[in-house]
Amino acid sequence: EPEVTQTPSHQVTQMGQEVILRCVPISNHLYFYWYRQILGQKVEFLVSFYNNEISEKSEIFDDQFSVERPDGSNFTLKIRSTKLEDSAMYFCASNRVVGNEQFFGPGTRLTVL
Amino acid sequence: SQQGEEDPQALSIQEGENATMNCSYKTSINNLQWYRQNSGRGLVHLILIRSNEREKHSGRLRVTLDTSKKSSSLLITASRAADTASYFCATNNAGNMLTFGGGTRLMVKP
């Protein structure tokens, strides 16, 4: 069964460094998302992406964040200058039709020291 | 305002018993989805119920939706130890985004 994959599973970085989290959505899906979950807290929406542009973003998704679909399979989240409070689990998700179930990847645990 | 709040926050039952988790939300929705998360792992989609549906079944799962009360419930029948996980409701309204609740931590004791 097709699934969303994410790499790396765990990323440790120093405050101020740039990180890129990678996702491979399900191949025939058209809508892509990033969410994050700070330890012990709710899953929070960051951004949705369709047709090579951002369709929605939350207040969390400020100028430090960017997303890109560099090729036909990858979907990336870049954090330009990481802060301690960016430490969280980051989930990528995708779906084929807006309003249908979203399929989540296993997540990347980001630890900012 | 908080969209998608589950109760109880934690639930502990014996294997074979039924588990009921509730979710309340504040704004109008297109659909409501339930997800499961094992400790430290990804989110697994369980079931989606649309705003014009009142009840939906999938295996041992039964979901109800009451849009007049802005609430939903997830019932897991004949629970198993493997059902131990956190369960989240998530609402989808006008756009693409899902708004998650805080989750119910379910423990099923063998």
Number of helices of chain A: 0
What form of chain B results from the Cα inertia axes?
A: globular
User: Structural class of chain A, please?
Assistant: mainly beta
Most strands sheet of chain B: 6 strands, mixed
- H/E order of the elements of chain B? EEEEEEEEEEE
Instruction: Provide the helix percentage of chain B.
Output: under 10%
The number of helical runs of chain B is 0
Low-confidence stretches of chain B: none
Structural overview:
The complex is a heterodimer of chains A (113) and B (110). Chain A has strands at 5-7, 10-13, 19-24, 31-37, 43-50, 53-57, 65-68, 75-79, 88-95, 103-104, 108-112. Chain A has 113 residues and is mainly beta. In chain A, strands 2, 4, 5, 6, 9, 10 and 11 form a 7-stranded mixed β-sheet that branches. Chain A has a 4-stranded antiparallel β-sheet with strand order 1-3-8-7, with no helix packed on it. With 110 residues, chain B is an all-beta fold. Chain B has strands spanning 5-7, 10-14, 19-24, 31-37, 43-50, 55-58, 61-66, 71-76, 85-92, 98-100, 104-109. In chain B, strands 2, 4, 5, 9, 10 and 11 form a 6-stranded mixed β-sheet that branches. Chain B has a 5-stranded antiparallel β-sheet with strand order 1-3-8-7-6, with no helix packed on it. In chain B, β7 (61-66) and β8 (71-76) form a beta hairpin. The interface between A and B is medium-sized, with 27 and 23 residues.
Comma- or semicolon-separated keywords:
heterodimer; A: mainly beta; 4-stranded antiparallel β-sheet; globular; B: 110 residues; mainly beta; 6-stranded mixed β-sheet; 5-stranded antiparallel β-sheet
Question: SSE layout and pairings?
Answer:
The complex is a heterodimer of chains A (113) and B (110).
Chain A: E1 5-7, E2 10-13, E3 19-24, E4 31-37, E5 43-50, E6 53-57, E7 65-68, E8 75-79, E9 88-95, E10 103-104, E11 108-112
Parallel strand pairs in A: 2-11
Antiparallel strand pairs in A: 1-3, 3-8, 4-5, 4-9, 5-6, 7-8, 9-10, 9-11
Chain B: E1 5-7, E2 10-14, E3 19-24, E4 31-37, E5 43-50, E6 55-58, E7 61-66, E8 71-76, E9 85-92, E10 98-100, E11 104-109
Parallel strand pairs in B: 2-11
Antiparallel strand pairs in B: 1-3, 3-8, 4-5, 4-9, 6-7, 7-8, 9-10, 9-11
